[in-house]
């Protein structure tokens, strides 16, 4: 299994509070991604990173920010959580070399009340 | 935007039968395709991939077929087992190493 650890695995919080999710990898891969997964939707890209301090927006980036200060860590922050951000969040990594799939963590289930 | 969809949201098969899961994609620039398996409470797990210059690739009990003419991808699972019960979804890649994912088909294997 790819060395990807997401923390926390579950979190319940209240509307308006800040939330930070962490993704840690031990594969030294260049690319890291944050997705959300909701019923009726495929995985949707929030933000991704193509190197330390290099990030870009995905299709559902509003309300989210990211940071990558080290190769191994990619943080996703909800500055002021809303109920529409209740979801399961997945981190993925890839080395970006040739045809290589993304590998995923086991997700963080986030509930915003 | 990109759209990758699956034809059937659910599929039930008898243990030992073959399963076929289908996927359609919309962007002709997609150059690489992946099938994932996702079990409850877990992250997607890579099953098999195929490049756009191929039309078939086989793995252990799985085969992926790619028809670029109609932008269709399928996953065939031979001799389906109870452990194959999961959600399966496809993904395609556009230039820039961005992937787009289908909504998934839930496969149930009946013992």
Outline the fold blueprint.
The complex is a heterodimer of chains A (113) and B (111).
Chain A: E1 4-7, E2 10-13, E3 19-25, E4 31-37, E5 44-51, E6 54-57, E7 64-70, E8 73-78, E9 87-94, E10 103-104, E11 108-112
Parallel strand pairs in A: 2-11
Antiparallel strand pairs in A: 1-3, 3-8, 4-5, 4-9, 5-6, 7-8, 9-10, 9-11
Chain B: E1 4-6, E2 10-14, E3 19-25, E4 32-38, E5 45-51, E6 56-58, E7 62-67, E8 72-77, E9 86-94, E10 98-101, E11 105-110
Sequence of secondary-structure elements of chain B = EEEEEEEEEEE
Low-confidence sequence ranges of chain B: none
Report the end-to-end length of chain B measured between terminal Cα atoms.
40 Å
Helix percentage range of chain B: under 10%
Instruction: Please bin the fraction of helical residues of chain A.
Output: under 10%
The H-and-E topology of chain A, N to C, reads as: EEEEEEEEEEE
Radius of gyration of chain B: 13 Å
Biggest beta sheet attributes of chain A: 7 strands, mixed
Question: Which value, in Å, is the CA radius of gyration of chain A?
Answer: 13 Å
Quote the average pLDDT of chain A: 93
Segments of chain A where pLDDT lies below 50 for 5+ residues?
A: none
Overall spatial form of chain A: globular
Could you describe the 3D structure shown?
The complex is a heterodimer of chains A (113) and B (111). By secondary structure, chain A is mostly beta strands. Helices cover 0% and strands 55% of the residues of chain A. Chain A contains no helices and 11 strands. In chain A, the strands form 2 sheets. In chain A, strands 2, 4, 5, 6, 9, 10 and 11 form a 7-stranded mixed beta sheet that branches. Chain B has strands at residues 4-6, 10-14, 19-25, 32-38, 45-51, 56-58, 62-67, 72-77, 86-94, 98-101, 105-110. In chain B, strands 2, 4, 5, 9, 10 and 11 form a 6-stranded mixed beta sheet that branches. Chain B has a 5-stranded antiparallel beta sheet with strand order 1-3-8-7-6, with no helix packed on it. Chain B is mainly beta. Chain B contains no helices and 11 strands. The termini of chain B are far apart. Chain A binds chain B through residues 4, 31, 33, 35, 40-45, 48, 50, 58-59, 90, 94, 96, 99, 101-107, and chain B through 1, 4, 32, 34, 36, 41-46, 49, 51, 89, 91, 97-104.
């Amino acid at each position: 299994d790819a060395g990807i650890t997401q923390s926390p695995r579950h979190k319940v919080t209240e509307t308006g509070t800040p939330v930070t999710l962490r993704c840690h990898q031990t594969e030294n891969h260049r690319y890291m991604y944050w997705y959300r997964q909701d019923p009726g939707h495929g995985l949707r890209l929030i933000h991704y990173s193509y190197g330390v301090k290099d990030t870009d927006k995905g299709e559902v980036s509003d309300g989210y920010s990211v940071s990558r200060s080290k190769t191994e860590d990619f943080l996703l922050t909800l500055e002021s959580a809303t109920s529409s951000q209740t979801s399961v969040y997945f981190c993925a990594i890839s080395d970006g070399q040739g045809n290589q799939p993304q590998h995923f963590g086991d997700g963080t289930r986030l509930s915003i009340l | 935007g990109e759209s990758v969809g699956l034809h059937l949201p659910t599929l039930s098969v008898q243990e030992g039968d073959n399963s076929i899961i289908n996927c359609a994609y919309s962007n002709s620039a997609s150059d690489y395709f992946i099938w994932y398996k996702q079990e409850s409470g877990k992250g997607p797990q890579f099953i098999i991939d195929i490049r756009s210059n191929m039309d078939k690739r086989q793995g252990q009990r799985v085969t992926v077929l790619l028809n670029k003419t109609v932008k269709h991808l399928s996953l065939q699972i031979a001799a389906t087992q109870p452990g194959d019960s999961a959600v399966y979804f496809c993904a395609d890649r556009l230039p820039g190493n961005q992937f787009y994912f289908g909504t998934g088909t839930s496969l149930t294997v009946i013992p």
